[in-house]
What we know:
It is a single chain. The longest helix is centred in the middle third of the chain and has 36 residues, at 11-46. By secondary structure, the protein is an all-alpha fold. 0% of the residues are buried. Helix content is 77%, strand content 0%. It has one domain (11-47).
Amino acid sequence: xxxxxxxxxxxxxxxxxxxxxxxxxxxxxxxxxxxxxxxxxxxxxxx
Length: 47
């Protein structure tokens, strides 16, 4: 992924970009945690 340098005077816009990047990161992490949880639950459900 290429990061574009925030232009001066577009502080709010670059802030939004940062926030959306963070959100995407958190989403990915949450997805991984959820997948792990699901697989663990499947394992426990087999017993």
